[in-house]
């Protein structure tokens, strides 16, 4: 089970936002995230808010689309009553869990609810995550016909023993099939990888990277495995049932991936993300990294509008009960002060290829730039042009770079 939600202020039952949250909202992009919390099997490394059939305690997956549409309608009422301008959704992202555990018709129905309530901008990006063993050709065709433009497959690895360590259930041979089916349906394709799994060698990782490149997806994500407390994986490592994770090997894996992706024509645009060109970047995720507005639908989903962040009740039963009672499903809320917003701006802006304007940093942060260049962490040419962007070494040490730049917050 996922860990507890953050401790913060109680969220109002009507969900209304303070006036400060909608100030200048017309200048910010708006997206919608839909959390589908169902999985066939709980992966040992996962601490997301997800539930297998045995953990649902009478909650019906068949009713979930109706509940999500109820929240979408509530979102429209709350934003209008709070004074937010009408904004069509620029991006929609269905994540989980495994969204494709639900019928494609349910996903399309939820997307239709978003379109009816907010509208979709021309050329809107609409993505769903999927496991390779959770879709058939007709599912992907229905999604494309219903307005989806993109599918992100959780490949994670091409090596059976690595998948087994992660408790992933799909056959690696299925990945080329689902990529082909998605292409036939007219969907853009992203493949997601995880590296640094206990017992994974550099050669294992090379096999996964080359397998991805053989499929020529539009987009690739590669995330270092994070061991979260309370997960099965954390317990296995603590008991010595799996070999410890080697940080130096994990760094080598990142460098190998970045080298191979670059050689194959992929550009990095965020520390853990690459695309064939700028048009195939994940615009939804860029909205998170740039501090835009989004409404998160579903149990445990997080939302952000103008520096106000809130999150829904975690369990699907509690979520459904609040909606049935006609109140906001939000369980907690926080309003970020100026220092917190600046910290997030630096933290997230540093991670993306566009980087940060040097002039936007405080005096302390600007003083650090020369030393960061000397340490090989920041691109010197871009810095001379007035922008701070990370080198490959800097991406490996992004957290350390941010800590040094955050002198700009405290001065």
Automatic annotation (TrEMBL):
SMART domains linked: Elp3
UniProt cross-references to Pfam families, sorted A to Z: Radical_SAM
Keyword Repressor attributed: no
Keywords, ordered alphabetically: 4Fe-4S, Chaperone, Cytoplasm, Heme, Iron, Iron-sulfur, Metal-binding, S-adenosyl-L-methionine
Family that this chain belongs to: Belongs to the anaerobic coproporphyrinogen-III oxidase family. HemW subfamily.
Function: Probably acts as a heme chaperone, transferring heme to an unknown acceptor. Binds one molecule of heme per monomer, possibly covalently. Binds 1 [4Fe-4S] cluster. The cluster is coordinated with 3 cysteines and an exchangeable S-adenosyl-L-methionine.
The name this protein goes by in its record: Heme chaperone HemW
Source organism (scientific name): Agromyces indicus
Phylogenetic classification of the source organism: Bacteria, Bacillati, Actinomycetota, Actinomycetes, Micrococcales
